[in-house]
Description:
Layout lengths: L1 H9 L5 H41 L6 H40 L2 H14 L7 H8 L38 H60 L14 E6 L6 E6 L17 H19 L1 E2 L4 E2 L3 H7 L15
Antiparallel strand pairs: 1-2, 3-4
Amino acid sequence: MAKRVNDIRLHPSGSNEGREDFIGFRNCFADDDDDDDDDEGINKKQKVEEEKEDSDVDDYLSEAFVVQAESVRPGMSSSRNYRREIINNQKREKNESEHVKQMPKHEREKVKLEEGLQKPLDPSSKGFSLMARMGYKPGMSLGKKKDENDMGSGIKEPVPLLLKQNREGLGIMAERKARFQKEIEKMRSASKNIGESIEDYRKRKHEGYLSRNWIKDLKKFQTVCQNLDAQRDLSSPLVPWFWKSFPKEVKNEESYESEIKYFYRNGKEGPPTLEYELLSLDEMKTMYDEINEYLRQTYFYCMWCCMAYEEEELLKSHCPGTEREAHPDYEDD
């Protein structure tokens, strides 16, 4: 190729021979370029085929790899969890042992004793071997057995030990417990009596309330009855105690001794004054209903309405009832 360039330079005159050489030189380069283009096309085709082949191969982030990894993970996680559980148990046991070491001596002894009592009898011990020679088998209970295969229905565990933890004498706790139970029984009986006394107190309060109101109403009934009877020019009541009587000292002409007699307001002699405090509630209620009914039927009078109606129909239609409780607006003088 360099020779041809020199040949071109040796013929500056522009002869045909140099021109032909130049054309041949140019064609040579053109052929080389065509060859390069062909090579590049082949290379591109090979790359496309290689990329296609690579696309057929699963990528490490593709779904196939993920599914395969998930199918393997449970076994790995279970083994890891098992190892982690073992490590945690070892740490827990270590912490518990460290905690026990930091306890006072008597507490450590108590913990060891409880742990020892919870453990079953070691089969390799002499005690277990001795029991085995006598016919004992693990899981058997105390008591008579029907046959060799019968495990029994009695107790299968040893009777627990009740260790004394204080310095009190034997029997002190039993005596203290009996005394405590006795005190509890006393308190129960006392509370029962208190409950009964509360009921009695309420009953007495209620009876006292009724007694005071009935005595007050009886005295008013007597005054009203005497006034209404006087308006009808009656000289004595229908029932002796319907009117009030007052004590008066009178001298006896024969013995010249004074004595107490009772008179109504109009001067006529009457029965002794009622001692209301000596009356029972039943007696008081009977007298209360008797004089109240007399005033309502005879004079159409209501104590708590504070008026006498002209006729019985008006009394029944306007009066709310025959008792004090039926007149909530009534107020004592």
